[in-house]
Design a protein that fits this description.
The chain has 383 residues and is of the alpha/beta class. The chain has 12 helices and 13 strands.
Length: 383
């Protein structure tokens, strides 16, 4: 009997085929590749006046939950952690102006991102979401965010995003997306004292306050105070996420602006948009590694045979760009609990338990693991 294909993880071959068919369709229609990427999203919005539910965050949350497999063991139901705890990773891109093209670039590069991150599969299951942040005056919602997915459904969701590609003014409304991720996402990884990754790839600034009116009107949620400063939103985000602003392209006029809110080490200039996928994976590599090196980065980027054409010059350039984040090298590995997270194959008594059966830590969800010793980081030599 043939073994059933594992559909719980990303299939890079299937992704390549999907992109190839999109490119063929674009050529046949005489349009740009980016137009074919967003066909489905535009079609849904045109028919219903709303975004597809898989990318429409109005009034709902986005969740990243550990994936369990239900088994019967001697007449007793138990749950198995099949792929490691979920590592939520968000790529948010500006949907206006030239940045609108980057959503399609993110889809095209998704296969490379997953393959590069496959080096982490003995401890994490990658859970990816792509989001669009734009202006409230645009024709489509200013914040769109796909559900977290660990398989090829992530690709399908990107096709449902609707970037406007036009901008009403220079200042965007990224602050709404930042507030949403801070307040309306629930991710299991924080229960272990660890953080997810949130990359904002953009080329502009945003409003300095989030207002109650805008949260209710554009996000469908409520906020107790009349307004909250962007500074407070960013501080809260950083406590739960490894947050990085990726300044895409050669316009560096807004770098200092973002440094005021995130700090210098979280604002990374990426002059070459074609290396956006490598920049994301590279930042994860240096954050998960206590003593990252350029050679280690090179090996990491070649993981899964997804980057066989990347040049040494590109790796060298990328390593140089990442030096801005040097104070954050090893930041994840140094967090309490890094070495004590559940592992693939661990058994759980209940579906929503955080800790496996027999673990010495409490199973109360609200209480993260306590560990006075920092993690040792990932030993890349074993790969």
């Amino acid at each position: 009997m043939a073994r059933k294909q594992d559909t719980s993880t990303f299939n890079a071959v299937k992704h390549v085929e999907t992109v190839r068919k999109m490119e063929e369709r674009a050529t046949t229609k005489g349009v740009r590749f980016t137009e074919t990427v967003h066909e489905k999203g535009h079609e849904v919005f045109k028919k219903t006046g709303k975004l597809h539910q898989n990318v429409n965050i109005f009034g709902v949350k986005r969740l990243s939950r550990n994936a369990m497999v239900l088994l019967d063991e001697a007449g007793k139901k138990i749950y198995i952690l099949a792929k490691g705890i979920k590592l939520p990773t968000i790529l948010g891109t500006d949907g206006t102006g030239s940045m609108g093209e980057k959503v399609a670039l993110a889809l095209k590069a998704m296969g490379k991102v997953y393959c590069m991150l496959s080096e982490l599969q003995d401890r994490y299951q990658i859970d990816l979401s792509v989001a669009v942040l734009q202006d409230v005056k645009d024709d489509h919602p200013p914040f769109q965010m796909a559900e977290f997915e660990s398989d090829n459904r992530a690709v399908e969701h990107v096709e449902l995003l609707v970037p406007d590609k036009d901008g009403d003014d220079w200042t965007e409304d990224y602050q709404l997306g930042l507030w949403y991720v801070d307040n309306q996402t629930e991710v299991d990884i924080i229960n272990y004292g660890l953080k997810g990754y949130f990359f904002l790839g953009a080329d502009a600034d945003c409003r300095e306050y989030v207002t109650k009116h805008d949260v209710e009107r554009y996000l469908g949620h409520t906020m107790q105070s009349e307004k909250v400063s962007l500074k407070k939103v960013c501080e809260s985000l950083i406590s739960k996420w490894h947050l990085f602003y990726l300044n895409v392209g050669h316009n560096n006029s807004n770098i200092y602006w973002w440094q005021q809110y995130l700090g210098e080490d979280r604002v990374i200039s990426i002059p070459d948009p074609d290396l956006l996928a490598e920049a994301q994976a590279g930042l994860i590599y240096v954050t998960e590694t206590l003593q990252p090196t350029e050679d280690g980065l090179n090996k990491f980027l070649l993981a899964g045979n997804s980057n066989d054409h990347i040049s040494q010059r590109d790796v060298n350039r990328l390593w140089g760009w990442l030096q801005v984040a040097k104070p954050l090298f090893g930041a994840q590995a140094k967090l309490p609990g890094y070495n004590k997270i559940p592992k693939p194959g661990d058994k759980f008594a209940n579906l929503r338990d955080i800790w496996p059966i027999g673990h010495d830590a409490t199973t109360v969800v609200e209480q993260p693991i306590k560990d006075e010793q920092p993690g040792s980081g990932i030993n890349w030599n074993k790969f």
